[in-house]
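Hey, can you fold this one?
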Amino acid sequence: MNLARRSHEFGLKWVEECLSPDDYWGYAELRRKVPPGMLVTTGEHEATRWGFRMLLEMGCCDIIQPDVNWCGGITELIRISALADAHKALMVPHGSGPYSYHFVCTRQNSPFTELIMNAPKADHVLPAFHPLLLDEPVPENGKLKVSALDGPGFGVRLNPESRLHRPYDH
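Sure. Predicted structure:
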């Protein structure tokens, strides 16, 4: 709680994933005690709509962060978004690249998506699934033009040059 209070003094807007993912009661208490105007966000490790329903019904957070790759795909992401909307919560998808970009463009309660900085020195933006996917759009100056999503499907292709291997024989 002290960290949230002190961080808020420096303009921090939210605290994210600061407790164990399934500590619903802790998140509910945290949300009640953070400074006015500070948001609590969690859910990137939640995998079902029922877990998100619990987070929302218990008042655990202001922003939920499902990952489309872990929660059951776009259809399930839409269901989770409807739950968030019904609870007047925002939804900021966890860093899942082009799959989140398409989703965010269609939702009112999802103002942006998380972008994982996976460049070794965090000095430029790399595609989220580099080098496995080709043609993945990359935001410039924090923005992505919707026209960058005009390709078929999610607009990405598997990279035939990527060597996929299993790390274990068994």
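The two ends are 45 Å apart (CA to CA). Let me know if you want another pass with a different chain boundary.
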